[in-house]
Every structure is written in structure tokens, then in C-alpha cells.
Design a protein that fits this description.
Layout (H helix, E strand, L loop, with lengths): L7 E8 L8 E8 L8 H22 L6 H28 L1
Antiparallel strand pairs: 1-2
Helix pairs in contact: 1-2
InterPro entries: UrcA_uranyl
Amino acid sequence: MRRLLSATLAAAFLAGAAAPATAEDLRIRIDLGQLDIANPADVEAIKDRIEIAVSRACAEAVRFPAEVRSIADCKADGTAKAFAEVDARRALVAAN
């Protein structure tokens, strides 16, 4: 049970938080491959993958220069939610 519960980490978050009229739900999926969520070095690699995926998703979702602040909000929200999911999975693995 020390292995990953699933080979994919999925996170959903809101893009365009500063502009509710254009807000949309974004979902990212991160392939964790052979990474072990119980290994701190692997967790750092997972978080690096999350940051890259969130940055790409937010950049694609926020299309207008006036929404640049929305990109920062989107990245902060998405990264926080995905990191929280990683932490929850680590706690579950540690408990078993």
C-alpha cells in the first residue's frame, strides 16, 4: 500500500477567478508513473509536474491581456488544490 493509490493525480480548480463571467472549471491530470508518494524526493517531482501542468492550463484558459491577474489567481488556486490532494494522499499512505 506504500505505492500510489492511483497512477494519476487529478485536480480541478477555477480559472478566471477575478472575472466570474469568464470563469471555467479546469482539470489537470498528472501522470505519476513510477513515483512513490511516500518518498519526499518523488513528492517534489510530483509538485514540479503539478506546477508545470497548472501553468499551462491557466495560460490556455486566460486568453486576454486584461486577464493577466487571473492567470496568477488561477495558478495559485490550482497549485494549492493539487498540493492539498498530494498531501491527503501522502497522509493516507502513511496511515496504512
